[in-house]
């Protein structure tokens, strides 16, 4: 069985990993923002359903990335609270 310091170190490593994941998600979100901007600019004046669907899907993907970031940060906060209590 792990001692308290080993548990704390493991939780800290988990938080660090989640932090790196959040950084990666933010990079992907920026790429999606650029893609959305380009697609919107390209599709101006076009009312084609496929263009509208593409924009809607990218917007939904972007929203879900925001949700993933919020959830990961909440998990990091909870893990840090746990680590400080043990």
Could you characterize what this model shows?
By secondary structure, the chain is mostly helical. 88% of the residues lie in helices and 0% in strands. It is built from two helices and no strands. The radius of gyration is 19 Å and the shape is rod-shaped. The two termini are 15 Å apart.
Helix-strand pattern, N to C? HH
**How far do the termini sit from each other?**
15 Å
Quaternary class: single chain
Query: How many distinct helices?
Result: 2
Strand content: under 5%
Measured on Cα atoms, how large is the radius of gyration? Answer: 19 Å
Largest sheet: none
**β-strand number:** 0
Mean pLDDT, to the nearest integer, reads 96
Shape category:
rod-shaped
Helix content: over 70%
Category by helix and strand content: mainly alpha
Residue ranges: pLDDT <50 for 5 or more in a row?
none
Q: Which descriptors would you attach to this protein?
A:
rod-shaped; mainly alpha
